[in-house]
Amino acid sequence: MAFFHAGPAPRSAGPRPGLLRDGLRLEPGLKVGLLGGSFNPAHEGHAHVAETAMQRLGLDRVIWLVSPQNPLKDDSETAPLVERMASAREFARGPAMVVSDFESRVGCRWTVDTLRAVTARHPGVKFVWLMGSDNLATFHRWRGWTDIAAAMPMAVIARPGSQLQSRTAPAARRYAAFRVPQEQARLLPDAAAPAWTYLTAPLNRASSTAIRAAG
Ligand SMILES: Nc1ncnc2c1ncn2[C@@H]1O[C@H](COP(=O)(O)OP(=O)(O)OP(=O)(O)O)[C@@H](O)[C@H]1O
Ligand SMILES: O=C(O)c1ccc[n+]([C@@H]2O[C@H](COP(=O)([O-])O)[C@@H](O)[C@H]2O)c1
Protein backbone atom coordinates (compact mmCIF):
# COMPACT_ATOMS: atom_id res chain seq x y z
CA MET A 1 0.00 0.00 0.00
CA ALA A 2 1.29 3.51 -0.81
CA PHE A 3 1.42 5.54 2.36
CA PHE A 4 2.55 8.81 0.87
CA HIS A 5 1.86 10.64 -2.32
CA ALA A 6 4.74 12.87 -3.39
CA GLY A 7 3.94 16.03 -5.29
CA PRO A 8 1.81 19.10 -4.91
CA ALA A 9 -0.97 19.06 -2.33
CA PRO A 10 -4.45 18.64 -3.82
CA ARG A 11 -6.56 21.75 -4.30
CA SER A 12 -8.94 20.71 -1.48
CA ALA A 13 -6.07 20.61 1.03
CA GLY A 14 -5.06 24.18 0.16
CA PRO A 15 -1.51 25.50 0.00
CA ARG A 16 -0.92 25.37 3.76
CA PRO A 17 1.83 23.14 5.13
CA GLY A 18 0.69 19.84 6.63
CA LEU A 19 2.07 17.41 9.18
CA LEU A 20 4.79 16.22 6.80
CA ARG A 21 7.52 18.18 5.06
CA ASP A 22 9.09 17.74 1.62
CA GLY A 23 5.88 17.82 -0.42
CA LEU A 24 4.69 14.54 1.09
CA ARG A 25 1.07 14.17 2.04
CA LEU A 26 -0.94 11.60 3.96
CA GLU A 27 -3.30 9.61 1.75
CA PRO A 28 -7.00 9.82 2.67
CA GLY A 29 -8.09 6.63 4.43
CA LEU A 30 -4.81 6.12 6.27
CA LYS A 31 -5.10 5.40 9.99
CA VAL A 32 -2.75 7.76 11.76
CA GLY A 33 -1.98 8.09 15.47
CA LEU A 34 -0.92 11.49 16.82
CA LEU A 35 1.44 11.28 19.78
CA GLY A 36 1.85 14.79 21.16
CA GLY A 37 4.65 15.31 23.62
CA SER A 38 7.40 17.46 25.02
CA PHE A 39 10.01 14.70 24.41
CA ASN A 40 12.30 16.46 26.87
CA PRO A 41 14.03 14.08 26.21
CA ALA A 42 12.38 11.19 24.33
CA HIS A 43 12.70 7.70 25.82
CA GLU A 44 11.62 4.04 25.53
CA GLY A 45 8.24 4.89 27.09
CA HIS A 46 7.35 6.96 24.02
CA ALA A 47 8.36 4.12 21.70
CA HIS A 48 6.27 1.78 23.85
CA VAL A 49 3.18 4.03 23.54
CA ALA A 50 3.63 4.45 19.78
CA GLU A 51 4.23 0.75 19.10
CA THR A 52 1.42 -0.40 21.39
CA ALA A 53 -1.03 1.93 19.66
CA MET A 54 0.22 0.93 16.22
CA GLN A 55 -0.33 -2.77 16.90
CA ARG A 56 -3.51 -2.67 18.94
CA LEU A 57 -5.33 -0.06 16.82
CA GLY A 58 -3.97 -1.29 13.48
CA LEU A 59 -2.47 2.11 12.61
CA ASP A 60 -0.52 2.80 9.42
CA ARG A 61 1.52 5.63 10.93
CA VAL A 62 2.24 7.27 14.26
CA ILE A 63 3.24 10.93 14.06
CA TRP A 64 5.28 12.18 17.00
CA LEU A 65 4.19 15.80 17.38
CA VAL A 66 6.95 17.61 19.18
CA SER A 67 5.31 20.40 21.16
CA PRO A 68 6.95 23.86 21.10
CA GLN A 69 5.99 24.11 24.78
CA ASN A 70 3.39 22.26 26.87
CA PRO A 71 1.17 25.16 27.95
CA LEU A 72 0.72 23.61 31.42
CA LYS A 73 4.44 23.03 32.08
CA ASP A 74 7.17 25.39 33.28
CA ASP A 75 9.26 26.42 30.25
CA SER A 76 12.49 26.91 32.20
CA GLU A 77 13.30 23.20 31.94
CA THR A 78 12.34 22.73 28.29
CA ALA A 79 15.25 22.04 25.94
CA PRO A 80 15.29 23.78 22.52
CA LEU A 81 12.93 22.29 19.93
CA VAL A 82 15.77 21.10 17.64
CA GLU A 83 17.23 19.04 20.48
CA ARG A 84 13.88 17.48 21.33
CA MET A 85 13.21 16.74 17.64
CA ALA A 86 16.58 14.97 17.41
CA SER A 87 15.84 13.05 20.60
CA ALA A 88 12.42 11.95 19.28
CA ARG A 89 14.03 10.75 16.00
CA GLU A 90 16.32 8.45 17.99
CA PHE A 91 13.34 6.56 19.42
CA ALA A 92 10.83 6.81 16.55
CA ARG A 93 12.18 3.73 14.80
CA GLY A 94 11.07 2.39 11.45
CA PRO A 95 9.28 3.91 8.46
CA ALA A 96 5.85 3.95 10.16
CA MET A 97 7.04 6.49 12.75
CA VAL A 98 7.33 10.13 11.73
CA VAL A 99 8.60 13.02 13.86
CA SER A 100 6.91 16.33 13.08
CA ASP A 101 7.46 19.98 14.07
CA PHE A 102 3.97 20.87 12.78
CA GLU A 103 2.91 22.76 15.91
CA SER A 104 5.94 25.01 15.75
CA ARG A 105 5.49 25.63 12.00
CA VAL A 106 1.82 26.58 12.30
CA GLY A 107 2.16 28.33 15.66
CA CYS A 108 -0.09 26.06 17.79
CA ARG A 109 0.53 25.39 21.47
CA TRP A 110 -2.92 24.28 22.53
CA THR A 111 -3.96 20.81 21.42
CA VAL A 112 -7.48 21.94 20.53
CA ASP A 113 -5.97 24.33 17.94
CA THR A 114 -3.53 21.72 16.70
CA LEU A 115 -6.26 19.16 16.04
CA ARG A 116 -8.36 21.71 14.16
CA ALA A 117 -5.37 22.61 11.99
CA VAL A 118 -4.45 18.96 11.40
CA THR A 119 -7.91 17.79 10.38
CA ALA A 120 -8.43 20.81 8.10
CA ARG A 121 -5.16 20.07 6.29
CA HIS A 122 -5.62 16.31 5.95
CA PRO A 123 -9.20 15.57 4.89
CA GLY A 124 -10.15 11.89 4.87
CA VAL A 125 -7.29 10.75 7.11
CA LYS A 126 -8.47 8.72 10.13
CA PHE A 127 -6.68 10.31 13.06
CA VAL A 128 -6.51 9.02 16.64
CA TRP A 129 -5.12 11.12 19.51
CA LEU A 130 -2.72 9.08 21.69
CA MET A 131 -1.69 9.78 25.26
CA GLY A 132 -0.54 8.12 28.45
CA SER A 133 -2.95 7.60 31.34
CA ASP A 134 -1.26 10.36 33.39
CA ASN A 135 -2.66 12.81 30.86
CA LEU A 136 -6.17 11.33 31.03
CA ALA A 137 -6.14 12.07 34.77
CA THR A 138 -5.66 15.80 34.10
CA PHE A 139 -7.32 16.01 30.69
CA HIS A 140 -10.25 18.07 32.04
CA ARG A 141 -7.76 20.90 32.72
CA TRP A 142 -6.73 21.16 29.08
CA ARG A 143 -8.09 24.08 27.12
CA GLY A 144 -11.23 23.09 25.20
CA TRP A 145 -10.99 19.47 26.37
CA THR A 146 -14.52 18.56 25.25
CA ASP A 147 -13.73 19.97 21.79
CA ILE A 148 -10.58 17.83 21.70
CA ALA A 149 -12.67 14.76 22.57
CA ALA A 150 -15.10 15.68 19.80
CA ALA A 151 -12.34 16.21 17.22
CA MET A 152 -11.10 12.62 16.86
CA PRO A 153 -11.14 9.28 18.71
CA MET A 154 -8.62 8.91 21.50
CA ALA A 155 -6.53 6.01 22.80
CA VAL A 156 -5.11 6.09 26.33
CA ILE A 157 -2.14 3.85 27.13
CA ALA A 158 -1.70 2.74 30.74
CA ARG A 159 1.23 4.30 32.57
CA PRO A 160 2.55 3.29 35.99
CA GLY A 161 1.35 5.48 38.84
CA SER A 162 -1.70 6.94 37.13
CA GLN A 163 -3.94 3.99 36.30
CA LEU A 164 -6.45 4.24 39.14
CA GLN A 165 -6.55 8.04 39.09
CA SER A 166 -7.11 8.11 35.34
CA ARG A 167 -9.91 5.54 35.37
CA THR A 168 -11.91 7.69 37.79
CA ALA A 169 -10.92 11.03 36.19
CA PRO A 170 -13.62 13.51 35.09
CA ALA A 171 -12.88 12.80 31.41
CA ALA A 172 -13.21 9.02 31.90
CA ARG A 173 -16.52 9.49 33.68
CA ARG A 174 -17.91 12.00 31.21
CA TYR A 175 -17.16 9.76 28.22
CA ALA A 176 -17.81 6.39 29.86
CA ALA A 177 -20.63 5.58 27.43
CA PHE A 178 -18.32 6.10 24.42
CA ARG A 179 -15.56 3.81 25.61
CA VAL A 180 -14.65 1.03 23.18
CA PRO A 181 -13.48 -2.14 25.00
CA GLN A 182 -9.78 -2.68 24.41
CA GLU A 183 -10.51 -6.06 22.81
CA GLN A 184 -12.22 -4.09 20.03
CA ALA A 185 -9.55 -1.38 19.79
CA ARG A 186 -9.05 -2.01 16.07
CA LEU A 187 -12.46 -0.45 15.49
CA LEU A 188 -11.37 2.86 17.02
CA PRO A 189 -9.83 4.61 13.96
CA ASP A 190 -13.14 4.12 12.11
CA ALA A 191 -15.32 5.12 15.07
CA ALA A 192 -16.85 8.56 15.51
CA ALA A 193 -15.49 10.85 18.24
CA PRO A 194 -15.76 10.96 21.23
CA ALA A 195 -15.07 7.21 21.03
CA TRP A 196 -12.02 6.25 23.08
CA THR A 197 -10.28 3.22 24.49
CA TYR A 198 -7.98 2.42 27.38
CA LEU A 199 -5.13 0.03 26.55
CA THR A 200 -3.68 -1.89 29.48
CA ALA A 201 -0.46 -2.84 27.73
CA PRO A 202 2.50 -4.16 29.70
CA LEU A 203 3.68 -1.13 31.64
CA ASN A 204 6.78 0.89 30.87
CA ARG A 205 8.35 2.96 33.66
CA ALA A 206 10.45 5.39 31.61
CA SER A 207 9.92 9.11 32.14
CA SER A 208 11.64 12.29 30.97
CA THR A 209 11.56 13.69 34.50
CA ALA A 210 13.58 10.72 35.78
CA ILE A 211 16.08 11.04 32.91
CA ARG A 212 16.53 14.78 33.56
CA ALA A 213 16.97 14.13 37.29
CA ALA A 214 19.62 11.47 36.61
CA GLY A 215 21.45 13.57 34.03
N1 LIG B 1 6.25 5.27 30.11
C1 LIG B 1 5.12 5.75 29.56
N2 LIG B 1 3.98 5.01 29.54
C2 LIG B 1 2.83 5.51 28.99
N3 LIG B 1 2.74 6.74 28.44
C3 LIG B 1 3.84 7.52 28.43
C4 LIG B 1 5.08 7.06 28.98
N4 LIG B 1 5.99 8.05 28.81
C5 LIG B 1 5.36 9.06 28.20
N5 LIG B 1 4.07 8.75 27.96
C6 LIG B 1 3.08 9.59 27.29
O1 LIG B 1 3.69 10.13 26.13
C7 LIG B 1 3.23 11.46 25.90
C8 LIG B 1 4.41 12.42 25.86
O2 LIG B 1 5.06 12.36 27.12
P1 LIG B 1 6.17 13.40 27.59
O3 LIG B 1 6.97 13.84 26.42
O4 LIG B 1 5.59 14.43 28.45
O5 LIG B 1 7.12 12.47 28.47
P2 LIG B 1 7.11 12.34 30.04
O6 LIG B 1 8.03 11.23 30.38
O7 LIG B 1 5.70 12.27 30.55
O8 LIG B 1 7.76 13.75 30.44
P3 LIG B 1 7.85 14.47 31.86
O9 LIG B 1 8.37 13.45 32.84
O10 LIG B 1 8.80 15.60 31.60
O11 LIG B 1 6.45 14.94 32.20
C9 LIG B 1 2.26 11.78 27.04
O12 LIG B 1 0.93 11.51 26.58
C10 LIG B 1 2.64 10.78 28.11
O13 LIG B 1 1.54 10.44 28.93
O1 LIG C 1 -3.87 22.02 25.08
C1 LIG C 1 -3.71 21.84 26.31
O2 LIG C 1 -4.37 22.45 27.16
C2 LIG C 1 -2.66 20.84 26.75
C3 LIG C 1 -2.31 20.70 28.09
C4 LIG C 1 -1.34 19.76 28.43
C5 LIG C 1 -0.73 19.00 27.45
N1 LIG C 1 -1.10 19.18 26.16
C6 LIG C 1 -0.49 18.36 25.10
O3 LIG C 1 -0.38 17.03 25.51
C7 LIG C 1 0.73 16.41 24.88
C8 LIG C 1 1.56 15.72 25.94
O4 LIG C 1 2.22 16.72 26.69
P1 LIG C 1 3.46 16.31 27.59
O5 LIG C 1 4.13 17.58 27.99
O6 LIG C 1 2.88 15.51 28.71
O7 LIG C 1 4.35 15.53 26.70
C9 LIG C 1 1.47 17.53 24.14
O8 LIG C 1 1.10 17.47 22.79
C10 LIG C 1 0.94 18.79 24.78
O9 LIG C 1 0.91 19.92 23.93
C11 LIG C 1 -2.04 20.05 25.79
Automatic annotation (TrEMBL):
GO terms classed as biological process: NAD+ biosynthetic process
Domain Cytidyltransferase-like: 34-213
Pathway: Cofactor biosynthesis; NAD(+) biosynthesis; deamido-NAD(+) from nicotinate D-ribonucleotide: step 1/1
Molecular functions (GO terms): ATP binding; nicotinate-nucleotide adenylyltransferase activity
Annotated CDD domains: NMNAT
SUPFAM superfamilies the record matches: Nucleotidylyl transferase
Assigned EC number: 2.7.7.18
InterPro entries noted in UniProt: Cyt_trans-like, NadD/NMNAT, Rossmann-like_a/b/a_fold
Highest taxon above the source species: Bacteria
Keywords from the UniProt entry: ATP-binding, NAD, Nucleotide-binding, Nucleotidyltransferase, Pyridine nucleotide biosynthesis, Transferase
First-tier enzyme category under EC: transferase
Reactions performed catalytically: nicotinate beta-D-ribonucleotide + ATP + H(+) = deamido-NAD(+) + diphosphate
Job description of the protein: Catalyzes the reversible adenylation of nicotinate mononucleotide (NaMN) to nicotinic acid adenine dinucleotide (NaAD).
Family: Belongs to the NadD family.
NCBIfam families named in the record: nicotinate (nicotinamide) nucleotide adenylyltransferase, PRK00071.2-2, PRK00071.2-4
Protein name per its UniProtKB record: Probable nicotinate-nucleotide adenylyltransferase
Lineage: Bacteria, Pseudomonadati, Pseudomonadota, Alphaproteobacteria, Caulobacterales
The gene coding this protein: nadD
